[in-house]
Amino acid sequence: YDPTRKVVHNILDVGGGIYTCLGKFVALIEIQEAIAALVSNYPNARLNRFSIATNPFVNEVSDLKAQLHVN
Asked: Which of 18-39 are b and which e, b meaning 16 or more Cβ less than 10 Å from the residue's Cβ?
């Protein structure tokens, strides 16, 4: 899997409905835990830039720039 790929029709997604990937729920828990760890370790972090790219299959974060302040 290459997140920098240029060909967007080779997308790795988690499906939906009865075709939802079972790993989707593990991935969501991992994302929640990662965000919780970031917030607890960097309470003064700021989101400087955020943009979403869309295509017929998925919405994806195309740009994310954050500033982390260490206390």
From this structure: eeeeeeeeeeeeeeeeeeeeee
Burial (CB count within 10 angstroms: exposed 0-12, middle 13-18, buried 19+), residue 42: middle
How confident is residue 3, by pLDDT bands cut at 50, 70 and 90? low
Long-range contacts of 56-62 (CB under 8 A, 24+ apart): 57/8, 57/9, 57/11, 57/13, 58/11, 58/13
Query: Which H or E element spans position 65?
Result: strand 59-67
Name the helix (H) or strand (E) containing 50.
strand 46-54
pTM of the full structure: 0.57
